[in-house]
Specification:
Layout: H1 2-38, H2 42-61
Length: 67
């Protein structure tokens, strides 16, 4: 009985993972199209901002910075 539940849970998680991977691919394509049409580099611009915000939040919380 427990094995059936585990197998079912694994199948559900695999299905969810596939769905998330598909969503990620769609978002990446949308970013690529936006970059092309707007002549910008969204990933470069916002990933650096996100990195800076994460570092600031960690330093405020007293957490060690990963460097």
């Amino acid at each position: 009985m427990k094995r059936d539940t585990s197998s079912k849970k694994i199948r559900e998680l695999e299905k969810k993972l596939k769905r998330l991977e598909e969503e990620k691919e769609i978002l990446n394509r949308a970013i690529d199209i936006a970059d092309s049409q707007l002549h910008t580099d969204i990933r470069k611009k916002y990933l650096s901002l996100l990195s800076e915000a994460t570092e600031q939040a960690q330093s405020k919380n007293g957490e060690p910075l990963d460097q």
